[in-house]
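Appendix C. Worked example: Anaerobic sulfite reductase subunit A
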Amino acid sequence: MKIKLSKENFNEKLKTLSNEYKILAPVSLEYMGTFSDTDVVRYKEVSSLDEMELNRKSNFSAKEIVFPITQILFYFTENEFKESDIDDKKLLIFLRACDINAMKRLDEIYLKNGIDEDYYYKKLREKVKFVLVGCRESFRNCFCVSMDSNKTDNYSMGIKIDDNEVFLEIKDKDLKIFNGEKCEFEIDFVKENLFNIEVPQIDKINSKEISKHEMWQEYNSRCIACGRCNFVCPTCSCFTMQDVFYKENEKVGERRRIWAGCQVDGFTSMAGGHEFRKTKGERMRFKTMHKIYDFNKRFGYNMCVGCGRCDDACPQYISFSKCIEKVNEISKERK
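Step 2, the predicted output written as structure tokens:
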């Protein structure tokens, strides 16, 4: 069903929906950016369209909604444990095609990557419904077209905004609370980015050859292991576990799941001081090959969705898209 309605009508219905759903969308947070006088765009709960920042790319993805930065899994004493409570409300998330496709990648890792599903991820993920926000133009550093993630049909409702009118494509019967004049329109999808890259085919990549290539040495001096690329990436899914014991009673505490990243010092540290990837170049090699080779070999498509957030966030101006191109060039050189 496709309809159009005014912003005022849309906001009224959104308010009604908020009784059943927690509505989340990109929001501009003043003075919360990298510098004291800059803002940052990230996902927060909203109650109207006016609160949403839909004209800019969010600095952080929506993954922190279903994969929180810090998540308490359960509380424990010396004799028993109690699972942490979660809000009963369902989740309605406004996001772009690349981020919906990124959620598909997280689903593969947490729900389909092995015998058992990740219980804690599934509890949050099954509450989610997507509202697709169209993209008329590509943002800086985006290469979603090259990664084939600029389009999706996995959404409950699509939205297009034109001045004071809101155009909705409603696919989920639970969201047919919106009413308006029937019309025909198409959700905007980016057809061309500001630049394109050629992604190597996995059957052309010699993983052993690539792993030993000198190209990775460049990142030993350039990368500072801050982990920003991991934490803004919508498909990075690594975490570590912490047991926190309370000062009042050291036999009582909580177990937390906390974001971690392959670029950060200590990520692969083991007992005895052993570490799988000590240099920053080795870590960049691991991340790159995981995004365009290992994941693809297992699931049949690339993990990276080309949102460009890693390039946006890197303080050393390291371009991940350029890194992919280098791998492609090396693969082409093979006889």
